[in-house]
Amino acid sequence: MRFALPVNIDCSRLTTGDSRLAQLATASILCSLIGVAWLKIDHLLIGPALALVPLAGLIVLKQPFPFALGFVLFSFFRLHEVFPQLYSLRIPQLLAMGTLVSLCWSLWSGRLTAYWTRELSIFGLFFLLVTVGLVFASNRGAAIGSFTGNYIKIAIMVVAIAWLATGIRQLSHTARAIIICGILVGAVALFNKMNGIGLVEGTRVTIGRNIGSMLGDPNDLALVLLFPAGFALSYMLNRGMGWSTRILAAIGFVTVVCAVVATQSRGGLLGIAAVTGIFAYRRIKSKALLAAIGAVALMALFAMAGVNDRASGGAHEEGIDESAMGRIHAWGAAIRMALHNPLTGVGLDNFILNYWIYSDFWDGQNHAVHSTWFGVLAETGVLGLVIFVSMMGIILRCVLLALGRLRAGGGLPEGRERWEAYALAEAVLASLAGFTVSGTFLTMGFTWPIYILLALATALGRLSSQMALAASQTDLQSAPPTTTAPGVSKLN
């Protein structure tokens, strides 16, 4: 059930004379402040920089969506760590402040209409459970630190993206930006691979390992690289896209796949297989042929990645390899954590800290869970896992409904906007499949991917519904008026 929460506040308007006087006074004050600052701060560029501040403030208030999108991209793809030259500029922090100011202003001025949907409700329920879990966390300091440092930002941006995306064009820009970021991160990963920079176990590529970046772990890097794959493949295969967009998407998909192969992450490779499998399933009629192609392609991916040559989890280890055995021990510990704390779990970011208590195997160090499902189970309990899986189910339902509305013959007019929406819906569907499969081996329960998909699915579901409603109203208006047969009275 969808319903709107209009936030409209009538602001008193100044008369023309008063408005001009206020503008003149404001300009005078700003010029005076800039002049004083230029005199006090002895730097040649400080004046021009301060002169751009009012323009920057105007852009922030008028265009909130690019700031929200920029913050999400920098936070998820870690662009300031991929390119360390940007690190000192504090770009994510600036984008976050710009987004919050712009969002609040848009709501207060009535330029933005807030709304609530089933997707946001289930997310709000999961967010509430995570918040309550902070009180009962075994290590409250670690849980609160992770909540305030990362998860609260994710929650705010889910709502911000869903509310600020008021048109298909904005969602299309989002998809293209995700593809471009995938190309940038993938290119740096391949450069590091070719030059032997930051390799783990001698063969597995990383980024920013020397500065402690999250991308310094091959599995986390594979997680980030996997996300753009669905968007790139969707925009490459859908014929409604322009050639420039399809070429960009093809470059993005090849770059991302090669970079994931370089990480030698089994979860990442399975995620790539799941993403491509969705498009193959929707386009290849013979399911037997599809299964054969899929099996060969998956074996080829693992062979190209050289997984058998990995120092951990390679073919030289007999029986169940060390990497797989470590996961089994971690998953057993997660189950015991959930059984001991079924309603709230051990708390956000508390799995590693509790590993030695609940594990049946101790080798002298704590281990990560390496699974989205077991991670959510351990840190939010059985109830949290049920809500989390339900949230994914609602996202899937929302995307499938949007695809049904946007499919050819669904009553919507032909045009670039509809094809853009359809490509985005397929991209979200494929990315959700990649998340579901790779989530078995990668820890993504409290990181950006699923929440970005949630925000995009929410906005897309609302916009596609509006498009379908507008198309039906147009059809009704263009339909010829009904006539009454002679001698038959028309009933009112």
List the defining traits of the structure above.
mainly alpha, disordered N terminus, two-stranded antiparallel ribbon, 18 helices, 492 residues, single chain, 70% helix
SSE blueprint:
Blueprint: E1 3-5, H1 16-40, H2 46-51, H3 53-62, H4 64-77, H5 79-82, H6 91-109, E2 114-116, H7 118-136, H8 140-164, H9 168-195, H10 218-237, H11 243-263, H12 266-283, H13 287-305, H14 322-340, H15 351-358, H16 372-406, H17 416-438, H18 448-478
Helix pairs in contact: 3-6, 4-6, 4-8, 4-9, 7-8, 7-16, 8-18, 9-10, 9-11, 9-17, 10-11, 10-12, 10-17, 11-13, 12-13, 12-17, 14-15, 14-16, 16-17, 16-18, 17-18
What can you tell me about this protein's structure?
It is a single chain. The chain contains 18 helices and two strands. It is mainly alpha-helical and 492 residues long. The chain has one domain. Helix 10 runs antiparallel to helix 11 (243-263), helix 14 packs across helix 15 and helix 14 (322-340) crosses helix 16 (372-406).
Helix/strand class: mainly alpha
How many DSSP helices? 18
How many β-strand stretches?
2
Instruction: Give the SSE string.
Output: EHHHHHHEHHHHHHHHHHHH
Taken as a percent bin, the fraction of beta residues is under 5%
The gyration radius over C-alpha positions equals 26 Å
Residue share in helices?
55-70%
User: Number of domains in the coordinates?
Assistant: 1
Strand order of the largest sheet: 1-2
